[in-house]
């Protein structure tokens, strides 16, 4: 499909994206975002604080939500506003499945409701405003 030929409409569902939650992903995301809280890299200290294991930080989740949307809308899409809330933790060995639904489209933007669920519940929920690629934008 040529650039700019794709249109989006209210009710469109984005294809799901399965993300294996590995120990490496959790630790690398924490390091990359300079979040050195022990619960994101030290299993023994996380357990001492009441968690069964290390868990993903919100900055990693935010990045994965962004990736999910730009993978769908294309590299010329711009994330204008990301409003997410964490729920069930993402622990190593689980899989998070991101899903999305276009809530509205107006004036070159789309509002998308996003959910990321894992084996114990909804890890992330929220709404993202995406600036849509313009007609003829480069790919």
TrEMBL record:
InterPro entries: HotDog_dom_sf, MaoC-like_dom. It comes from the Bacteria. SUPFAM superfamilies: Thioesterase/thiol ester dehydrase-isomerase (SSF54637). Residues 17-117 form the MaoC-like domain. Pfam families: MaoC_dehydratas. Signal peptide: none annotated. Belongs to the enoyl-CoA hydratase/isomerase family. This is MaoC like domain-containing protein.
């Amino acid at each position: 499909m040529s650039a700019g030929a794709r249109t989006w409409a209210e009710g469109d569902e984005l294809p799901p994206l399965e993300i294996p939650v590995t120990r490496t992903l959790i630790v690398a995301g924490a390091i990359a975002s300079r979040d050195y809280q022990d619960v994101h890299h030290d299993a023994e200290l996380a357990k001492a604080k009441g968690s069964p294991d290390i868990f993903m930080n919100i900055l990693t989740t935010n990045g994965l939500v962004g990736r999910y949307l730009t993978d769908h809308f294309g590299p010329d899409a711009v994330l204008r506003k990301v409003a997410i809330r964490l729920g069930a933790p993402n622990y190593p060995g689980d899989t998070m499945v991101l899903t999305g639904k276009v809530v509205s489209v107006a004036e070159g933007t789309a509002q998308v409701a996003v959910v990321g669920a894992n084996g114990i519940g909804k890890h992330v929920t929220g709404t993202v405003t995406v600036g849509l690629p313009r007609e003829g934008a480069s790919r």
